[in-house]
Every structure is written in structure tokens, then in C-alpha cells.
Amino acid sequence: MLIREFEQTAYLRYLQGEIPGTLHQYQGQEAVAVGVCSTLRADDWITSTHRPHGHALAKGMDPKLAMAEIYGKASGCLGARGGSMHLGDPQIGMLPSIAIVGGGITLAPGLALGLVRQGTDSVVACFFGDGAVNEGAFHEGVNIAAAMNLPVVFVCENNLYSASTPFAETTRNADVSSRGAAYGIPSERIDGMDVLAVRGAATRAVERARRGEGPTLIECLTYRFVGHSRSDARGYRQKDEEAQWRARDPVKRFPDWLVAHEIASAAEVEDSIARAKAAVAEALSFAQQAPLPDSATAADLAVVYGAPPQPVETAGPLADGPEERLLSIAEALREAIAEEMTANERLLLLGEDIGVPGGWGGAFGVYGGLAEHFGRERVIDTPISEKALLGAAIGAAVTGCPALPDLQYADFVFEAMDEVANEAAKLRAMSNGALTVPIVLRCPVGASQRGAQHSQNPESIFMHIPGLKVLCISDPYTAKGAMRAALQDPDPVLVFEHKLLYGAKRRKESGSIDTRAFVPETEYVLPVGQARVRRRGDDLSILATFTQLYASLDVADELAGDGVSCEVIDPIWLAPFDWEGIMASVGRTRRLIIVHEAPLTGGWGAEVAARVSAEFHGHLLAPVVRLASKDVPMPFAPTLEAAVLPSREEIRAAVQTVLAN
Question: Which residues have a Cβ under 8 Å from the Cβ of 296 and sit 6 or more positions away?
């Protein structure tokens, strides 16, 4: 009754223009939320959907906070940063609801993994609609939960319609529960309009999960009495169909059942209804009178980032050291990860081919020996399921277990863009700062005769997504210190590393570059957002990453004999960016060349060029020059690949052109 009264009140107030945005309401489906959540403890978690009001109230959310949130008031459960589609409260074990269809199905296994790693017997209930079972997230999320034997109860609220399209028209097999067999887990199809049937199935599933016997799939046949959203007039449904389902309304049937079985009297039922109405009336009054959020806080980075970007001093050239401590990037990364895993026993590695005995240690050997040292319960091999892998990492991180997921190649991150861009990047802001998402996603990039789908440099894309931090590693000293910083950071960090820079020796057949450098044996952490001046100079500034950094250093060394003094800077962090250091360099030299392997259009150099040009308008001695790969998919043949990449000759010509102005 509390859920029904809440929804009806919200509906009427929305029609009167008091509630902004839209509403996806729950009338008719109350028995599912109540039946499942009544079996859960306070320390259990739930994930929800764009239709979250019923789940939130059933899990124990204060109706006042829920109503204030959908009103867009500062007193809402998420400070008005979530709204109707993103209700949640970590204090009651509810992740901010995921409005992307199927989004919670990949996060729930991660939440469960984090809870297991912390030694609890807590479980996760994952709510989703029938439309979500046709998403790849359903397959990947259920499969990884089954493969890892995680305590998740997957609850499909099958209300027969995926928005307005009948579910039976979108799949050959409309029996969702039958799909559990494909993953080797028990499943049930039950009457979702009967709260006791739901509670019985949920009890069995929850008890099974607590015993460590893994996930269960429950399909609840139910019906929403309202449209998909408030703009849906339900013209696609038949009146007799609606009448048949309304006759089974759980909010009406269950009170009658209680009285008929002498479990409650009619007076007690009426008293319960009256209390629900009073609670919602109080919630409405609270929401109407609550203050609006302060618009001055709209762009508050402290809500977006657990560690907001701070100005740092640009570092100088790399230091020298003894021969025995000249490490490759791969060796330095391994050392950093091992040190952090020793320091933080909750840190998990998840990925493909990272821990199999006698295996690769990851696609580029970075994790070699870590599984033997730290155990396979922390170095976890996952299915080839990028969405599930990232979702699991995010969920585990939310519970307090930082995670380092590995996708082998940066090209594959697009398989999990929902998890990266819509969830990892936004959960902290959506939760009004209540959650942190400490994950570090390693992304090998770069042309290396592997063709268009294994050679991309997509790092620029992620600069455009607030909530993410972007790190580009081009030398071993940075590899260790910046990786330690990333693994200690409370925010999601994407770490891009060039495939040709991992090794210790130059090999002509692969184009590998000898990047070995001195790496202190002692533990150290480099500041987040710190660029490094790799070579000091006065005539012009060159900003470059990865292989183009080494090409620029070679050109600068060659031109030094002609009296040309080039300052070469490795930005290292694209987000947060060392704007102060870059501006200081260009302010001295008054000339700037930017070189990167990412395509020219939309590359990170475009943003730098725009800001530098605006900052020094009328003071530069020459226009900013950008050198980058041509705007084509990277071809395979070495000759074609070389023709697409910026060359040393182009860098040298650009320097001469800039100096001639």
C-alpha cells in the first residue's frame, strides 16, 4: 500500500506540473519488490532499473527522501542529482538505479564479488525487466555470476511489454526462466501478482545464495497498470487484457487473503492502509517544502571525483640510476601492481588470461607470476565478456574492493562503453558523492601491424567523459609511480599504454622501442595530473605521447646540433591535464607543436590547441601545429601503416616551419 499510494500521489502531482522530468511507475508490480525485499537483510544489496520507486521503498528507503528526490529537491536521497530514474541510497544497500536497460545485471555480480571477498554472507538482488533479457548484458552478467558462483538473485519482472512492444514479439523464447538452464543455475517462473509466491521463491534463492551455492534466476509474471512512462497512453494494449490483470491486483487481493485466513482483521488492514496514506502525505509535504539545490554546486567537482583534480608542479627529466634497475615498462607495471596488492589486500585483478597456471600473464605478460604470489582468488580469470568484466570491477569497487580489470586491447573497451561511460563515470555524481568507484582499466593502444581492430588510440574519447581520469604511460619510471597513484585513486582511471613500448629491447621486425629507464626499487607515487618535461628547451614546445614522444626526442636531439632548442613534454595525464605546466612552457617559447598517434580530428591535441590559442591569442610567434594519424582506420601492411602515422620527417618539417614564422 505504501508503494501504491506513493505512486498514485506522484502521478497526480506530476500531472499538476510539480515534478520535473518524467516518471516510470510501478503500479501493479508491487508484489515483486515486496516479496523479494522482505527476504533481504539491511546488509544485502539491490540493483534497480529506470522504474525504481517500488524497489527503493521495499528496501527501506524513507518515503520523504524518495519523494524529495523525484521533486528535484536538495533533501532528496541523492541531493537531486539522481531523480526518478536513479533512486538509491548506499546506506540501505541500494545502488543508484541504472536507467540503461540491463545495466544493473553486469554490476550485481561485482557487488556480490566484493561482499564475498570481505567475508560476508550478504546477497545481491538484481531487478530487471523482460526487455533486458535480450541485451548482451543479461548473458554476460548471468554467465559470470554463475561461473564465479556468486550470491546473486536475478529477478526478471516480466510485465509482458518492452516499453510498448510485446515481449513475445521480440524473442522466440518468451519463457525467461528457461534460460537459467543455459547457465547451469536454478530458475523459477512464478506468479508475480502473488506476494507470497514471490516471497517463497525469493526465500529459496536467498538462502541458497547465503549457503554459497550461487545465483538463481526468478521470472515474475506481472503487469504494470500504467504506461511505460508518463507520456505513454497505452494505446497498444487491449482493454480486456488490462481488466484481467487488474482483477489480480496484489494490493487488493492480499488484504482479502489476510482477512479470509484470519491473519489480520479488516480493522487492522484499514489501519495499515491509513498509515501508508499518512506516510505518503507526510512525504509529499516534506518534498513540497524542501529547498531546491543550490545552483552554485552544479559543477562541483568534489561530487564528481573522490579526489578532485589539483594543480601540481610539472616534473623535470627522468633521473639516471644503476644498470640493474633499468626496467622495461612491463616490468615497472608488474612491480607497481605487486606493491599495491601487497599494501592493499582488497585489491583485485580481473581479466582474460591473467592467472591461468602456465598461461600468458595477460596479453603482454604484465601479470606474470602475480597469480602464483597472490592467489587466484585475487588474480581472477574471467570469461571473454567485456561488459561483465567491467561491471564486476565496478560493483566490487563500490563495495570497497578496488579492482584492476584487463581487456587485453584498448579496442575492446567499446564492448563495455555502457559500463565505462554510463556507470563507472557517473555513479559517484549520481549518488551525490556517496559512492566511489576505484577501478583502473589498462588499455594497450597503438599501431603494431595488427590491423584496424587492434591498433586504435581512443584515449581522446575518454577526456570528454566527466568522472573519468585518463593516464598515458610512455616510460618505466612513470609506469611504476603513476600506476601506484592510479591504483590508490578513488576514481575510475583508464591507463593507456603503447604496445610497442612494453619490451626492453628494440626489435626491427616488430618496431619495438627500447624504453628501459631507471626505476627506484623503493616505493613511490607520482602526483595525479603531473606532466613531465623530458627535454628542456627555449625555442619551441613539443607535446607528445607514446611512440611519438620518442620520435620527438630524437628530432630534438638531431636539431640541437643546428642550434635549435626544443622543449619536449610528455603530458602523461590527459585528465586531469597539467594546464599550468603546459601554459608555462608555451608562455616561454611562444611556439607549440602537438604530436600524437590518435587521429587528427577530435584528438586530444585539438583541445590543447584550442586552449593554448585562446590563452595566448596575439602572443604566439606561430600558429599551433598538430601532427597526428590520418583520419582512416589503421591499415595492416607496414608500408600503409607507416604512411598513416606521423613521421619523424613530418615532425622535423613542422619544427622548421614553426621556427620560420
Answer: none
